[in-house]
Design goal:
Distance between the termini: 85 Å
Largest sheet: 20 strands, antiparallel
């Protein structure tokens, strides 16, 4: 009888407070008080820490419409007066696009809501169902609270609180499942997902709920959990049901210029077709082409879309494509094809793939790539050749370790955009973010749900670009390039312009932004390189060079500088050598005509004091000026093996009793000695007193040798040594090593001439990040834009000049 009396009491108690048949045990669970119209819930273990995390987090505060960041940052809110010590549930219900209501649920504890010492607070009672709802006003903020048994509730809405007290609470089975999932972090996020927009008039259901641990970090957010689908409703995520997630290689072909990219994978194309038909209630069929595909990547570029198909067997894929394509020209040795869709290949995949008309297709590694225009195809190929892809970005490398290698669907929002998928997971609107270069959402389908990885980390602008190589410009000449492009100092900006010659002997002068400033017809090909001089000694630079007929000096506007050009009846046989003995711009121009040597001053007059005017045999290398200590040496190498080592006035300074079989390698200074590398690959070291020591190098016929300052570089076929540090290059045919120095840092460059790859190393033999890049000639290096970033120029395709920037 006593037991029946107790039971009656309990039932009466429950009925009094809830007017429904829920048990008292259930009433004691915080989740049983969640208002029925709640869309998003935070499960919070430490209220104070979470509040501070939201207030300080730069990402959440930038996300447009992020509700909880706004909630925690509201100053002098009634909710600031609540001091929970245990778990807290914070619920959000959207009233409209700009207004939300929030409800806090927690266990009653000591000092939870003490107002005795708080100034400016007022409270009034609102009777409801035999209880008093407390209305609290603090400055301009108001909230409504109630104590039910051991539970405390506070809401910005009186109506929401009353509905909860009437038992109008969240009873959705899928929501309950999401809420009960184990959470290991301080904060869990449960959110009813919104429909995703295909365009302004069409949207589609993606999935039902997301439930994940959310780490609010000083440099961003990381989320790990699940996304749930409702099998009884058509939801896009369900198209991956039954598929085994495949390895995701999208990052290797997403260019850094992309705004957004999506990758989805599958292992069973027939099942995918069936699932898509169920989702669309349509009998659309997938083309047999996709039987050899297991990953599809969509790229949203600045003005266009592109699609990349990862093929399991590219030959099979091309066989299926054959009826749609016709061959076009190649670009940087990549064959392009015109693509005509006789039937829409990709429409079946909408909305996973945006409806787009493609005209070009090409192959890159395992991917078959479709673009809207030929220009976009060329830009993508340039990016791929230069490693300017997401996989090589430092900010992605740090995110990659937190992603699964295989996934069903991965979305990449880039260039500081939050994107639709990322925004949907965090209940926000698409936003532009500063210092957050990527926001990634990854889903791995598993039965009736998908595992979720979400990551968005902050990176400073400098660190975002660190190590990346950007192709700034590509300039096409009228005809094929002769030699290599060079930088030339712009005395107005102290930056660099570009000079280059084509096969019709036209000289081009190009600004660093790619604009051709002038062209000049020359009477022949330039011998060797173009030199910078300042003949007028006023800081304004001129271009000095020779052809086989003429010694030219041009100003930066392409005008001849009097008394030049200087014409010659007999052919000039070596590039002009220009000496500036004391770095005082009193130049000496040395012209060789077979055996004859002529020296001119800056006025084009003979230097009568130079007495060496004829060699005993043909001169085989451009004359060189080398200073050792306080002595000047002029070196003139002859075909008969004689090396003339002269003083400034042309008198013999060092007498040698040995001849040499000169190679094309210039004579170098090594310490206080001269070094000659002969054709038979002997290293001849000449001291200042004329003693010669020989060393058989036992190297290949392709051996190269270069020294600048303390940097010594040798190249023996594919074996590169930098100050003795061995670097084994891929087998190939390489240009001679070049040494450059900027800001106390040394760079060693060389180009593989068959594969068209430019390599760049530091003095320790370490390859710079994201090299090699595409190029077909030797390079030149400078800070072209005076932004403290190094640029390099190189010949690209036969008519093309490329300007890169190292970040």
């Amino acid at each position: 009888m006593q037991k029946l009396s107790n039971l009656a009491f309990v039932l009466a108690f429950v009925f009094f407070f809830w007017g429904c048949d829920t048990s008292s045990k259930k009433n004691k669970e915080l989740s049983s008080f969640i208002p029925e119209s709640t869309q998003t819930v935070l499960k919070i273990k430490n209220w104070g820490i979470t509040a501070q995390d939201f207030k300080k987090n730069n990402l959440l505060n930038q996300l447009n419409g992020e509700p909880f960041s706004e909630f925690f940052n509201t100053k002098k809110s009634v909710f600031d007066l609540v001091k929970p010590t245990g778990n807290v549930i914070l619920c959000k219900e959207a009233v409209n696009d700009s207004t939300n209501h929030f409800t806090l649920i927690t266990k009653i504890s000591a000092n939870l809501f003490k107002l005795d010492s708080i100034e400016g607070v007022s409270q009034t009672d609102i009777p409801f169902n035999g209880k008093n709802i407390k209305k609290t006003v603090f400055n301009a903020s108001e909230a409504f609270s109630i104590q039910i048994d051991s539970v405390f509730m506070m809401s910005t809405s009186e109506a929401i609180l009353k509905k909860s007290m009437e038992g109008k609470v969240k009873k959705n089975a899928l929501f309950s499942k999401a809420f009960k999932l184990k959470n290991d972090q301080q904060l869990a996020y449960i959110h009813e997902l919104n429909a995703l927009k295909e365009n302004d008039s069409i949207s589609y259901p993606f999935a039902s709920l997301a439930s994940f641990d959310l780490q609010v970090l000083p440099d961003g957010v990381v989320g790990n959990g699940v996304v749930l689908v409702n099998d009884s409703l058509p939801q896009l995520l369900s198209v991956f049901k039954g598929q085994i997630p495949q390895k995701n290689d999208a990052a290797s072909i997403i260019p850094l210029s992309a705004k957004e990219a999506h990758s989805f994978t599958f292992n069973d194309v027939n099942l995918l077709e069936k699932n898509i038909q169920l989702f669309k209630s349509d009998s659309l069929h997938i083309d047999p082409l996709f039987e050899s595909i297991n990953e599809i990547v969509t790229l949203k570029l600045s003005n266009e879309n592109a699609i990349a198909l990862k093929s399991l067997d590219t030959q099979i894929t091309w066989d299926e494509l054959a009826k749609y394509i016709s061959e076009k020209e190649t670009f940087r040795e990549v064959q392009l094809f015109a693509f005509t869709e006789e039937q829409p290949l990709f429409n079946v995949f909408t909305p996973l793939i945006e409806d787009t008309t493609f005209s070009i297709v090409f192959e890159w590694e395992d991917f078959i790539i479709f673009t809207e225009t030929e220009e976009t195809a060329q830009q993508l190929i340039s990016d791929f050749l230069n490693n300017a892809v997401l996989a090589n970005a430092p900010y992605f490398e740090s995110a990659y370790v937190q992603l699964a290698q295989a996934s069903s669907l991965t979305t990449y929002s880039l260039q500081g955009y939050s994107g639709s998928f990322f925004s949907n997971m965090l209940d926000t609107k698409s936003s532009k973010l500063n210092n957050f270069p990527s926001a990634i959402v990854q889903l791995i389908y598993d039965r009736d749900f998908a595992h979720l990885n979400l990551i968005c980390k902050e990176t400073s602008g400098k660190k975002q670009d660190s190590g990346l190589i950007n192709q700034l410009i590509s300039v096409s000449l009228d005809r094929e390039i002769v030699g290599k492009p060079q930088f030339f100092t712009n005395h107005n900006t102290l930056g660099k312009d570009i000079v280059v010659q084509d096969i019709s002997n036209v000289l081009y002068f190009i600004s660093s932004n790619g604009k051709t400033l002038w062209k000049k017809q020359l009477d022949g090909a330039i011998l060797g390189s173009i030199n910078e001089v300042d003949i007028l000694r006023n800081g304004k630079k001129q271009l000095a060079f020779s052809t086989r007929k003429t010694l030219y000096v041009l100003d930066r506007n392409g005008k001849d500088v009097a008394p030049f050009p200087k014409k010659f009846k007999d052919p000039i046989t070596q590039p002009v050598s220009i000496f500036d003995y004391d770095n005082n711009r009193k130049y000496r121009f040395v012209i060789c005509q077979d055996k004859d040597v002529f020296m001119y001053d800056g006025q084009g007059k003979d230097v009568s004091g130079f007495t060496f005017n004829k060699a005993s045999s043909s001169i085989v290398l451009p004359p060189q000026h080398i200073r050792i200590g306080n002595k000047d040496y002029i070196l003139i190498a002859e075909e008969n093996g004689k090396l003339n080592i002269l003083s400034r006035v042309g008198k013999e300074r060092i007498k040698l009793n040995k001849t040499f079989e000169f190679s094309e390698i210039p004579i170098e200074k090594e310490g206080s000695n001269f070094v000659v590398i002969t054709k038979n690959k002997s290293k001849e070291t000449i001291s200042q007193d004329g003693k010669v020591s020989s060393q058989a190098l036992q190297v290949s016929k392709n051996y190269q040798f270069a020294i600048e300052g303390t940097i010594k570089v040798t190249l023996d076929d594919h074996l590169l040594r930098i100050n003795g540090q061995l670097v084994e290059l891929p087998l190939g045919v390489y240009s001679k090593p070049q040494i450059f120095s900027f800001n106390k840092e040394s760079f060693i460059a060389l180009t593989e001439l068959k594969e068209h790859k430019v390599y760049l190393f530091n003095k320790s033999g370490k390859l710079f990040p994201n090299f090699p890049v595409y190029g077909t000639s030797e390079i030149d290096m400078a800070d072209a834009n005076k932004n403290k970033k190094i640029n390099l120029i190189v010949k690209g395709q036969p008519k093309e000049v490329l300007l890169y920037q190292l970040n």
